[in-house]
Specification:
Residues 1-160 form the N-acetyltransferase domain. The chain is of the alpha+beta class. Helices cover 32% and strands 37% of the residues. The protein has four helices and seven strands; from the N terminus they run E-H-H-E-E-E-H-E-H-E-E. The protein has helices spanning 7-23, 35-44, 91-105, 121-129; strands at 2-4, 48-54, 57-66, 75-82, 110-117, 133-144, 148-158. The protein has a seven-stranded mixed sheet with strand order 1-2-3-4-5-7-6, sandwiched between helices. The model has no long low-confidence stretch (mean pLDDT 97).
Length: 160
Amino acid sequence: MIRAMTKQDFVAFWPVFKEIILQQETYAFDPQMDEECAYQLWCEQPLKSFVYVENDKVLGSYYLKANAMGPSDHISNCGYMISPHARGKGLARKLCEHSQKQALELGFRAMQFNSVVSSNEVAVSLWKKLGYDIIGTIPKAYRHPKLGLVDSYIMYKWLE
């Protein structure tokens, strides 16, 4: 069900991606980003990108990359998106667990999420259940369309 993402997969996932960035509730991506820029960001710049496919439908995706370069290149970074129609079914957990295994296979020793919007309580709770700690809070880092300025968290997990 989880496999490497192809260009065709991204085209199929684009409506979900676009909906998520237009909502401006979880990702600090330009809501006016076009499909090609989104593809570059999600699939070309990272080391790897994966999809969760069920009944020939792309229901979720994640990218995996180094969080930094040089002496800190042993820490990975991921971003996850789940179709609104597939939420609450454990897909984010499956993608995160898959990403941790992939990170270890690629030689990473830790994973860091640089900006988890504090109002995204479902994600914050899941990441904590999966062993991530909040190691920092960035006050008023995110302009939420309904809540105004909210904090973002830096979350971290040692994988080995």
